[in-house]
Write a structure and sequence with these properties.
Layout lengths: L12 H5 L2 H5 L2 E3 L5 E3 L21 E7 L8 E5 L5 E6 L27 E7 L2 E3 L16 E4 L3 E9 L2 E11 L12
Parallel strand pairs: 2-10
Antiparallel strand pairs: 1-3, 3-6, 4-5, 4-9, 7-8, 9-10
């Protein structure tokens, strides 16, 4: 195609809520769409890669920063009782193993962006996991991966640019999901 571009808007949530009033604020937390706990892969097909890419698994959260804040940006997920389920931050985390380790593991999670403008974060619908011991070897799984959150109502709390903002988010069970005593975590 000569000189033509194709753009795909996969989520217009911020555009629907955007206003001049939001643009004038130091920070704004957009109300996210309900998040569905999808079963995205099975052990049989997990090694197969297709030509496309799925959207991030979990609640996609957008926030606006008029200017890059001097302090860290923090995003907490609270349950119905107000207890913190998960905390995300713009602080850079050290990787759990040294970069030159001959047996590399998963890299450290990416910090929240704190640049000026519209930013996106993802809550993977999980609780905070265990704190990893630096340089400790793990045989299987990742202890820093917490258990899945149950479907229900949660609150997002953003602390940025001297503001504390909240908005609700709903977690839903995907069509293949099961709940009850026999449900896997």
């Amino acid at each position: 195609t000569h000189g033509r571009s194709i753009f795909i808007l996969d989520d217009v949530t911020p555009l629907r809520e955007w206003s001049k009033a939001i643009e004038a604020q130091a920070a704004h937390l957009f109300t996210p769409r309900p998040a569905v706990r999808w079963q995205l892969e099975s052990p049989i097909s997990s090694h197969l890669k297709g030509p496309g890419e799925n959207p991030p698994a979990g609640a996609i959260v957008y926030y606006w920063l008029k200017q890059e804040p001097k302090d860290d940006v923090e995003l907490d997920v609270l349950d119905a009782a107000g207890a913190v389920v998960r905390s995300l931050s713009s602080r850079k985390l050290e990787p759990p193993v040294a970069e030159d380790d001959p047996d590399p593991e998963e890299p450290a999670p990416k910090p929240l962006p704190k640049r000026a403008g519209l930013q996106r974060a993802v809550w993977d619908l999980r609780y905070d996991g265990a704190t990893r011991i630096r340089k400790a070897k793990v045989d299987a799984g990742d202890p820093a991966t917490g258990p899945l959150a149950l479907p229900g109502s949660y609150t997002l709390r953003l602390r940025a640019a001297g503001e504390t903002l909240t908005t609700p988010v709903e977690g839903r069970l995907g069509p293949r999901g099961r709940l009850g005593p026999a449900a896997p975590a």
